[in-house]
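Structure representation:
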Amino acid sequence: MTADVTNTGSVVGDEVVQLYIHQKAGSDSRPMRELKGFERVTLKPGETKTVTFSLGPAELGHWSTNAGKWVQDAEAFDVWVGADSSATLHADLAVVR
């Protein structure tokens, strides 16, 4: 997953870019948004940087209370990137087997 971050201001600034996921369905109930990655970037005025996040089994899996073990369901996910948990930059992701 990648996202471009741009400093639209007139001074150097820092931003903590955060990645959240939500599994739309599956074998267990999961939180509405789970923080799965973050990166702090420093940007000069007008500068844009690309932030890259990995989404693999470690990030998409969860502890299943039903199965009593770590699982990764083949399901659809919502993915958000932004400065906090109310991020609106959204994408869909599907895990298939």
Remarks:
- Residues 35 and 77 are 13 Å apart (CA to CA).
- The first helix runs from residue 57 to 60.
- The two ends are 20 Å apart (CA to CA).
